[in-house]
Design a protein that fits this description.
Elements: E1 3-4, H1 5-12, E2 15-17, E3 23-24, E4 26-27, E5 37-40, H2 47-50, E6 57-61, E7 73-77, H3 80-93, E8 100-101, E9 106-107, E10 118-119, E11 124-125, E12 130-131, E13 136-137, E14 142-143, E15 148-149, E16 154-155, E17 160-161, E18 166-167, E19 172-173, E20 178-181, E21 186-189, E22 192-195, E23 201-204, E24 209-210, E25 215-217, E26 223-226, E27 231-232, E28 237-238, E29 243-244, E30 249-250, E31 255-256, E32 261-262, E33 267-268, E34 273-274, E35 279-280, E36 285-286, E37 291-292, E38 301-303, E39 308-309, H4 310-345
Parallel strand pairs: 4-5, 5-6, 6-7, 8-10, 9-11, 10-13, 11-14, 12-15, 13-16, 14-17, 15-18, 16-19, 17-20, 18-23, 19-24, 20-25, 23-26, 24-27, 25-28, 26-29, 27-30, 28-31, 29-32, 30-33, 31-34, 32-35, 33-36, 34-37, 36-38
Antiparallel strand pairs: 1-3, 2-7, 21-22, 38-39
Length: 346
Amino acid sequence: MEFTAQQIADFLQGEIIGNPDAKVNNLSKIEEGVPGTLSFLANSKYIHYLYETKSSIVLINKSFEPEHPVQATLIRVNDAYTSMAMLLNMVEAARQPKSGIDPNSFIASSVSLPSSVYIGAYSYIGENVEIGENVKIYPQVYLGENVKIGNDTTIYPGAKIYRDCVIGNNCTIHSGVVIGADGFGFAPMGDSYVKIAQIGNVVVEDYVEIGANTTIDRATMGSTYIRKGVKLDNLIQVAHNVEIGNNTVMAAQCGIAGSTKVGDNCMFGGQVGLAGHINIGNHVNIGAQSGVTKDIDNGQTIFGSPAQPKKEAFRTAGMIKRLPNMLKLVEELQQEVKLLKQKLEE
C-alpha cells in the first residue's frame, strides 16, 4: 500500500515540512533509508543521518530544529518514537490474519473452540482448555489441561503452557516460552533432596507480552502472578510465587527468585537479579547487571552488585577507578615511612 505525507500527517496529527504529496510504501531505519520509505528520528545519536538519508519521509519531534537542509519531507509530531510505533502497528494489523484449524493439530474432545480461532499444525490442546475469541495458536504449541486463554491473545510456535494456568486478553507469548513449569522446590533430607510438589499455577493478566524462551514457574501453592500490562523480554526467569506488578518492564536475562514481589511501573535493565522473599516498591528503576538482596522502597533508582542507590553507586564506581592511583600512593608512602625509620635508627 502507498501513502502520502499528507495522509500520514493527518493520521498522526502532525505538521508537514516539505512536499505533502511525497509517497511511501515501506518503512526503513533512518541510516538505511531509500526512496519510497518512511523513517523516524528520536535519538540524538542519529541526527547526522537526517541530512544524509534517502528516505522520502522522516518523522521528527516538534522540539527538534534541523541545522542543515534536509532532502526528505519532514512530519513534526509530539513523539516520533510513539508515532512510528503507531504506524508499525497499523502495518502489522494490515497483514492477512491467520485463521482455521490445521487438521494435524490435536484438540481434546472436551474443548469447544470459537470459529474465530487459529490453531496451527501439531499444536496440542488438552482436556477442558478454554480459548477465547480471535486467539491465534501457532504450530507446535502445547496447552495442558484446564488452561484458560483470553480473547485476542497470540501464542507463537513452540510455547508450552502447563496445566491450570490462566492467560488473559490481548497477550502475546513468543516462541519457546514455558509457563507453569515446576518451581524450584526441594527439601533437604540427609545427603539428598526430596521434591516438593508444586500444586499452584501461573496467572498472566491482560495486555502482557512475554519474550522468547522466558520461563515462568508455577507456584508451590496459590499463584505466580504477572499483572496487567507487564512486558518481559527474552530469556527471563521468574520463579515460583513471584508477583510482578502492573506495567513493569524487564530487559533480557533478568532472574527473579521465589516469592519476591515487584511493584507497579518498575523498569529493570538486562541481567538484573533479585534474591528471594524481598519486596520491590512501585516506580523502581534498576540498572543492568544489578544484584538486589533486600527490599527497595518506592521510586528509587539503584545500580550495582550489591545494588545501591544511584548516587552511592556512582560514588563507589568513581572510587574504584581511583584505586590503582591510591595503591601507588600507599606504596610510595610505605617506602617513605621505611626510609624515615632507617634515618631514625641511624
